Amino acid sequence: MTKTIPDVVCPFCGTLCDDLEVVVSDDGKQLLEVYNACAIGAEKFLHSQAEDRLTRPRLAQEDGSWKEIGYEEAIEYTAQMLANSKKPLMYGWSSTNCEAQGVGSEIGEITGAVMDNTATVCHGTSLIAVQDIGIPHCTLGEVKNRADRVVFWGCNPAHAHPRHMSRYSIFPRGFFTGKGHKGRKVIVIDPRKTDTANVADVHLQIEQGRDYELLDALRVAFKGLPLPDVVAGIPKEQIYEAAEVLKSGRFVIIFFGMGVTQSLGKNHNIDEAIAVTRDLNEYTKAAIMPMRGHYNVTGSGAVWGWQFGFPFAVDLSRGFARYNPGETTSNDLLRRDEVDSVFVLGSDPGAHFPFSSVKKISELPSVCIDPHQTPTTAVCKLHVPVAFVGVEVGGCAYRMDNVPIETRKVVDAPEGMMTDEEFLEKVLGRIKEIKGE
Amino acid sequence: MNTLAITVNLITGRTIQQGVSMEGGKEKPAYTAACGIIEIDPSDFAKLGAYRNTTVRVTSEHGSVVVKAIEATQGPHPGVAYIPMGPWANQVINPNTYSTGMPTFKGTPVEITEAKNETVLDSLELVRKACRGEI
């Protein structure tokens, strides 16, 4: 017999779809089917059952081979590395639950670490902009029920957040949006004609990296003031038209992604996007939201926000929290050779950091906590596989609109495997012993 | 041997194939097939004088990598090339954060040349070899 677990939360992207149904075997050990998830979410659940999954920690040997070790030895290695470092970098924290993030922060405080999460290569610049000028925000429920003008700026949810459009932003019928897709106007701004642009009413094919100019031009167009004939590759008629579409809406939502945060201009692009939103509030109701990628990157920002006052790049090496993006951010620390060990949990910098940073990780004492084999585990000295958070252990995660959702456990982890939280608790206990606290 | 080279603006980002193969295991061939590629506009293919699905070398002032060139799936966008986010793209993107913490993943000028006799390494091998200075 099998049993179906309803209302399962998907631990892939920041949309945190909470309507998945997962079929498991009667003994709760095998995961058989996943319904309602996107292709990526389904793969994440099913891959946890892979036959070649690693279940025990591995230590890299001189000749490049791996030696299997027990969890006790892995805990000792990790605790010694962190306790003996002057300034460890503790990076990741986005693919785990808030409970584990809390324990990780305590380790960071005791060892004088720099705590950084994946926002550093994702929406870190958005956080800087929000701290600079604030943000008119809303929840995804409000988007579903109220938004009749939807802008996707430098993001491609058709690929990166596959169910976002059907659950919240374009297709669903809401309380005040009973016509669904027909009642909404969708504008996509992207240098490529993406699959998201294909379902939009208007696609402004902007020249890459010219976001600031186009945002500025929109602010000019809202006021009906003159524009040059072409701005950022877009004819002025199209800009005036887009401005009119936005002003005439009842509720405008601007979603923005990596096209804005990772292009030159960075946080200043977002400053301007927020200014566009603020201007729109002169005419109608408007809000803006970052399209956050990892399912709990928002949560790690929230946890550190209430623990340290800063959402990422928290430097605890002086015994109190310092925050200075550009100085206390992972890639800058690695490029400047300012950390003496690296601890990674819930992320893969080996695949997603610029190579110069990856090389630096490979030269330092390093530990990677990850259920998968990844380019990070390939260059770290110790690899500790753990249970999948969101699949084999529950816990709190924050959706991209800052709504906390309790994720569910659907199957048991392979026998003898630890969870992130358990592993961190043990490491914390051992560090306290070493430091005599 | 074809020695034509074109210069394009490189951007990176997610694709659904990148997401699915990433969750399926980054050591598997599917991940290399999904991310060890560069999407080039048809007009740029014409300038390069290369066939679709040939291996090419992509070089910037920050590094160099061999990937498979395919025709852009979400285009047209002349002058813009696309490598899905992953270790291949990260060999060549601009790591400078300009005091924001954020490397410049989008908007790196790169040169593309044909590299028919070279192979696309898988993600683990690429990172290991690059760290050892073997490529």
Strand content of chain B: 25-35%
Estimate the global geometry of chain A from the Cα principal axes: globular
SS content category of chain B: alpha/beta
Principal-axis shape of chain B: globular
Terminal CA distance of chain A reads 51 Å
User: Do you know the CATH topology of the largest domain in chain A?
Assistant: Rossmann fold
- What topology, given as strand order, has the largest sheet of chain B? 2-4-3-6-1-5
Look at the helices and sheets of chain A and give the structural class.
Answer: alpha/beta
How many independent structural domains of chain A?
Answer: 3
Biggest sheet record of chain B: 6 strands, mixed
In spatial order, strands of the major sheet of chain A run 5-4-19-18-17-6-7-15-16
Tell me the quaternary state.
Answer: heterodimer
Which residues of chain B sit in consecutive blocks of at least 5 with pLDDT less than 50? Answer: none
Number of strands of chain A: 21
How large is the share of residues in beta strands of chain A?
15-25%
From the structure above, extract its key features.
heterodimer; A: 437 residues; alpha/beta; Rossmann fold; Dimethylsulfoxide Reductase, domain 2; 18 helices; 21 strands; 20% strand; B: 135 residues; 6-stranded mixed beta sheet; 5 helices; oxidoreductase (chain A); Formylmethanofuran_DH_bsu (chain A)
